[in-house]
Amino acid sequence: MRLEVVFLFVFLDFCAGKERIWRFVSDISSPENWEGGKLAVGCKGVHFAAVNTAPVYVRELTTPEIVLPEDGEVDLFEEGAIEFKDNKKCIKLKPINYHEWYDSESWTNPENNIAIPHKQRIPCIQDDVIFPNINHSRVLEDFGTTIQINSLKFSNEIIDSSSLKNFIETKPGHDIFYNPLGPFNLLIANSKCDDPYGCLCHKQFVPCPLKKTQNSVRCREPIEPEEFCEAICGAYVTYEPGSGPDLNQVRKKLREFEVETWASRVKDYLGNEVVQIVFTEREFTGRSHQEAETFFNYLKNHNAGKLQILKSGEFYMEAGGSPTVSIVIGSFLTVGVFFAILLYLQSDNNAVMVIINRFHKRGSIFTVPFFARFDNIDENLIIDGQSETGSILDIAKSFDNPMYGQSPSTSTQHENPLYEEAKNDDEAPSTSTSNQHENPLYEVEE
């Protein structure tokens, strides 16, 4: 008989759902809705925040004055009253807003286990939902989905499907369970799980909250297990239900590990149902990788089917910089070098060449000569060619030298002033007593 009782207790452990308790209230008398969580000083009365997305209901209030919100709604409960009387107190309220049903932050999480998928931190179809103060609860569901739960309580009162439907149709019920797209679809399904390999938390699509933000991670290539709404560091193992250890045996084995773990039945990206075991750490060190591999080998030795393991990248120190930072710095350096080259190409090359020639001897690749010839009659400079390095300045002007004038007499023209071509034998002798040369550094004596 004792063995039967123990077996029944273990069986109910994974079949029974959990209690999910709503966290937030809109009661203005609750210090959690006051700025700083305490009475204000230097003012009097009740001061609402400028903007509130949820209506506020007041039952009894005594205050010297009320500063109403610019955008919002304040209502009185039936038989409620406000008495304007000085009570020497001042309250400045935080914004009173709706909170999403699908946001895991809207529900208490007694396990405080970061390995639990986000979509399993909200009520599953096997869970019992409790609203401790239904009159001051403000619940938002704006995806147009149907929510299924096992049971529902308003404080200690059990609510059935008929009572819930009638309540949601009232004005206070509509303000409490709000869906801007239509009626709030909350179904009490009375669902239980009798599969030793577990059951799905949700039968229908469950969205991640729109305000999803990625927490900082200290690993490369973080992973996102099924039903998670953000990536994590660690690893997860999956195998086929019906093979290997059942969910109760898995959870018993997981107690031997140090990192945070969670085992549940989920759908993978292909739509196949698998048992998923998540290994993660609050401060990632890589130990979750080692323990996931150990558990993977355990499942392999126990004939788990379609066994898979997926791990995040290795640990890295935040102070050492991340690949993203390195990429950004490298990109800035590349752009800086590019613009430096572009500036060089667009700048005054003559000034650049002067600087370069200070560090190079004459005749180097930076001192490529220019070729030109003079015409003493036209006083024009005829450019025959140009250096491969491009024009430094206006070449025609660069050959002007005011120290040397022009003579009306004719002269022999040379392209290179260092050399003279020999005169032909049949050429008449020149009547000029001197030859003119392009290069004034050389003089021909009579």
Describe, in plain words, how this protein is organized in 3D:
This protein has 446 residues and is an alpha/beta fold. The chain has helices at residues 2-15, 161-168, 171-176, 247-254, 287-301, 323-346, 349-357, 395-398, and strands at 19-21, 45-47, 56-63, 66-67, 74-84, 90-92, 99-100, 128-131, 139-140, 147-149, 151-154, 157-159, 177-178, 186-188, 234-239, 260-267, 273-280, 308-311, 372-375, 380-383. It has five domains: 1-18 and 97-209, no CATH class; 27-95, no CATH class; 234-311, 2-Layer Sandwich (Alpha-Beta Plaits); 324-352; 353-421 and 430-446, no CATH class. The longest helix is centred in the C-terminal third of the chain and has 24 residues, at 323-346. It has a four-stranded mixed sheet with strand order 1-8-11-12. A four-stranded antiparallel sheet has the order 16-17-15-18.
Could you give the topology of this structure?
Blueprint: H1 2-15, E1 19-21, E2 45-47, E3 56-63, E4 66-67, E5 74-84, E6 90-92, E7 99-100, E8 128-131, E9 139-140, E10 147-149, E11 151-154, E12 157-159, H2 161-168, H3 171-176, E13 177-178, E14 186-188, E15 234-239, H4 247-254, E16 260-267, E17 273-280, H5 287-301, E18 308-311, H6 323-346, H7 349-357, E19 372-375, E20 380-383, H8 395-398
Parallel strand pairs: 1-8, 2-4, 2-6, 3-5, 7-9, 8-11, 9-13, 10-14
Antiparallel strand pairs: 11-12, 15-17, 15-18, 16-17, 19-20
Q: How would you sum up this structure in a few lines?
A:
The chain has 446 residues and is of the alpha/beta class.
- Name the helicity range: 10-25%
By secondary-structure content and strand pairing, the structural class works out as alpha/beta
Q: How many domain units?
A: 5
- The tally of beta strands, per DSSP, is 20
Q: Spans of 5+ residues with little confidence (pLDDT < 50)?
A: 1-15, 361-367, 386-393, 407-412, 418-425, 427-435
End-to-end distance: 141 Å
Strand line-up across the major sheet? 1-8-11-12
Order of helices and strands, N to C? Answer: HEEEEEEEEEEEEHHEEEHEEHEHHEEH
Give the CA-based shape: flat
Main β sheet profile? 4 strands, mixed
Report strand %. 15-25%
> Mean pLDDT score, rounded?
79
Gyration radius, rounded: 43 Å
How many helices in DSSP terms? 8
